[in-house]
Amino acid sequence: MEIHPVGTAPIGAGGDPLSTMQWHLDHQHGVPLTGLPFEITDDQWLGAWLRARERRPGLTKNRLAEGLAHTEMPCYTINPDHRLSPADLALGRVEQTDAAFAVKDRLIGRQIPERLQVSIPNALDLAYFVSGSTEAAPDWMVDAQAMINGEIREIAKRWGDMVQLQLESPSILLAYYVTPRELWPRLTTQLAHQVAETIGVAPEVPWVLHLCYEGPELDPLVEPADLDAAVLFLNALAGALAERGTPMPRIHLPAAAGVAAPSTDPDFYAALGDLRRGIDVIAGVVAEGHPDETRTALALMTDALGAPVTAIGAACGLRQRTIAAGGANLALAASVARAWTATCTS
User: Fold this and answer.
1) What is the pLDDT of residues 230-274, one digit of tens each?
2) DSSP track, 257-308
3) Cβ-contact 40, 10 below 8 angstroms
4) pTM greater than 0.90 (yes/no)
5) Residue 213 contacts residue 257 (beta carbons within 8 Å)
6) What would the 3-class secondary structure string for 134-174 be?
7) Total structural domains within the chain
8) CATH number assigned to the domain comprising residue 204
9) pLDDT tens track for 77-114
C-alpha cells in the first residue's frame, strides 16, 4: 500500500517546489508515495491566482466573492467590450512544472517517486471561483476549459508519464448537495462529460481525480452523510471515459471533510458496493487526531468495496495543518499502510 500525498504541504513546510517535495520525502517513513507534489503552499494558490486577474485588461474586480472567503477572495466581471480568452485565466502550471523538474535532482531520499504530481484545478471550479457565483460561472466556463486543456496538453507533451496529473474539484460533490435529488441524473451526465473531456486531453498520462469537501478557505463546504453522490458520479465518469477509450483515473475518495474524523458508520460506505469494479480507489481516511477512526474507516471502505484500496491519504491537502500536524498525518498514514500491507501479505 502506498501513501497518496494529496498535494500540499503544511504552511511553513513549502514555499518553493524543492522544499515542498523534500518535505514529503522526509515524512514518508519508508512507505512509497504515489507521486511527488511540488505545489507552493505558503501563498495559497487560489488567492494569488484570483488577485492576479486584476492585472488582466478587460476584467473588473466586482466584489468579494460570496462563500469563498470572509473578506479575502476577489471575483470579477467581464467588461462588455472585452472578449474573454484562455490567456485571461492562465494558471502557469507548465512553468511551475518546469521549475520543479529543474530542481528534482537536488532531492535527497531513498524512495524518490518517478513521477512528479501536478495539481490541475477543474475548470468548473475555476469558473465558479473567478466569477463568484454559479449564475455567472457559465460565462467563464468555455475559456477556463480551453485554458486548462492547453496547459494539460503542453505538460503531457513535454513530460509524458514523468508526471502524474491530479484533477482537483470540490465543486463536483458540492453540486450534488445543492441540487434536488430528482435532478441528480441530469447533473451527473453534465459533470461526467466535463471531467471526461478534461482527462481525455492527455489519456496517455497517469491521472488521479481528487474529490473533496473543502472550500478554498479550508472550511468544509458540506458535511457528508454518505458516498451516494460520489458513487453515482464515478460510475457515470467510468462510462463516459469508456466511450472515449480513455482509462479511468485513480480516485482519491474522501471519507470526511477537512481535518474531521472519518466516518465509522458502515452505512456511510454502503454505496461503494455499487461502484463499478476495477476502479482504483485511494482511501482519504487519514486524520492524525483520530487514529482509531482512521483504521476503522479504512476497514469499512475496503469491506464496502469488496476489494483492497491501493493507497491511503488525508481527506484533503495538508495546507490547513501545522507542520507538526502535517507530519503526524503522514506518520499515521505510513503506520496504517505498513500494518495493512503486512496483514494482506501474511
Assistant:
1) 999 999 999 999 999 999 999 999 999 888 899 999 999 999 999
2) STTSPPP--GGGGGGGGGSPTT--EEEEEE-TT-HHHHHHHHHHHHHHHTS-
3) no
4) yes
5) yes
6) CCCCHHHHHHHHHHHHHHHHHHHHHHHHHEEEEEECHHHHH
7) 1
8) 3.20.20
9) 999 999 999 999 999 999 999 999 999 999 999 999 99
Q: Is residue 50 part of a domain?
A: no
For helices 123-131 and 138-159, what crossing angle results, to 10°?
140
CB atoms within 10 A of CB 213: 23
Task: Tell the residue number behind the cell numbers 505498513, with chain if given.
Answer: 338
SS3 194: helix
- Give the CB-side neighbour count of residue 290, counting CA atoms within 13 A: 19
Q: Is the dihedral of CA 331, 335, 337, 338 positive or negative?
A: positive
Locate cell 529543474: which residue? Answer: 102
Domain, as residue range, for 40:
2-45+85-345
- Cell 482519504 belongs to which residue? 284
Q: What's the burial of 203, exposed, middle or buried (CB within 10 Å: 0-12/13-18/19+)?
A: middle
163 occurs within a structural domain: yes
